[in-house]
Design brief:
18 strands; 2 domains; 379 residues; Immunoglobulin-like; binds zinc ion; globular; Aminopeptidase; seven-stranded mixed beta sheet; 8 helices; alpha+beta
């Protein structure tokens, strides 16, 4: 008789995060490693081998950490699919491993790491409209990317800043950001207008260490990256953004967008929405942009201004920012700025539609178009 197979679960790779409690027969109990997160959050990602040909039940012991489409899985860590089954209200799933399965990756989302960005940049390394630089070094010594794109060979008319991953785990937002980059390099006429008139700066991983080390990053102790924009910044990325962006802007920065993902489950969070600014003049611009985004995103993931959360509604109130100022509150005061907002991109389901690598990237392309139309209308 063949020796009984014992599955091996690992998290020692970029983005990895899991704690295994026990393995009994074909049932594995496990939970997310919340590390320095204040309170509960739901990020996890692991790799399993030695499970080929078996059926394994995974039971999570700390809350609903699966989307309403279940986990995402991948055979190479790059191409991901949702299991598309919601079992036990987001606390368990069952997977039958093909007889030929080697390593299989599972996560609550579809991880987007430095290597995903490199893959995109390698494909576009000859483009004169894209230039990679380093914003700063992270606390753990990683290079934090800063990408310039669009109008680079002369003074632009306008500047645009897009940032993501203030919260390390919010990876679906990164596919949207890559979509904007793709749009900018595309053959569309409006993209050509952007390349002639608009300089973009992209900071894809504000919490670079958190992304690579597999942290949630949300509500991090002692300070959340997105509450580090007042007083003395403790993170080098935020400190550099605060020092460098106003100088780079030269009062030409008109549009600053921070991409996020909301909570994992529930009707409020299974949407794409803007978070309303505390500044009424910026909120007006968000409303204007919302109408354009709705029109431009038709045929991709659904977005409607009706999903937006104005300031003073729900969690979007001064109470939520007690820990310090957010990127958007800070950016909304940069001289000359029109739009300074954040866009929340649901992890798995947006108003009923499936959010995945492809649809999130396509939505990003439409977002790029919406930014172009907004700027053309505003200048
Ligand atoms: Zn966030």
């Amino acid at each position: 008789m063949a020796a009984k197979k014992v599955p091996v679960i690992e998290a020692n790779f970029p983005g990895g995060n899991i704690l295994v409690e026990d393995i009994r027969g074909n049932t594995i109990r496990l939970r997310q490693d919340t590390r320095d997160t204040e309170g509960w959050w739901f990020y996890w990602c692991f790799r399993i081998r030695n499970a080929a040909g078996t059926t394994v039940h995974f039971k999570f012991t700390n809350g609903a950490v699966l989307s309403s489409r279940g986990p995402a899985f991948s055979y190479d860590g790059l191409a991901w699919s949702w299991l598309n089954r919601d079992e036990a209200r987001g606390t368990a799933f069952t997977f039958s491993f093909p007889a030929t399965a080697g390593e299989v990756y599972f996560s609550m989302g579809m991880p987007y790491l430095e290597r995903n960005l490199k893959f995109f940049l390698d494909k576009n390394r000859k483009s004169p409209f894209l230039r990679l630089e380093t914003l700063c070094l992270s606390r753990h010594g990683r290079k934090v990317e800063c990408l310039y794109a669009g109008c680079l060979d002369r003074q632009p008319q306008v500047r645009v800043l897009l940032v993501a991953r203030h919260h390390a785990c919010e990876m679906m937002a990164s596919y949207v950001m890559e979509g904007v980059m793709r749009y900018l390099l595309s053959r569309s006429e409006l993209a050509g207008w952007l390349r002639e008139n608009v300089e973009f700066m992209f900071i894809p991983f504000v919490d670079k260490d958190g992304v690579e080390e597999g942290d949630s990053g949300k509500n991090r102790r002692p300070r959340d990256h997105n509450r580090d924009y007042s007083g003395q910044s403790i993170y080098p990325e935020v400190k550099t953004i605060r020092e460098f962006v106003p100088e780079w802007s030269g009062e030409k920065l008109k549009f600053a967008l921070d991409l996020h993902c909301p909570m994992l489950r529930g009707p409020r969070d299974e949407k794409i929405f803007q978070v309303g600014s505390r500044y009424p003049r910026v909120w007006q611009e968000q409303r204007k942009f919302g109408l354009i985004l709705k029109k431009c995103s038709a045929g991709s993931l659904p977005y409607s201004p009706a999903f937006d959360i104005p300031f003073w509604v729900g969690w979007n109130s001064p109470q939520n920012y007690r820990g310090g100022e957010s990127f958007c509150a800070w950016a909304g005061r940069i001289p000359g700025i029109l739009y300074a907002g954040s866009l929340e991109v649901a992890y798995a389901t947006a108003d009923g539609a499936e959010v995945n690598q492809k649809t999130a990237t396509l939505f990003g392309q439409r977002l790029g178009r919406a930014i172009a139309e907004y700027l053309k209308n505003s200048l």
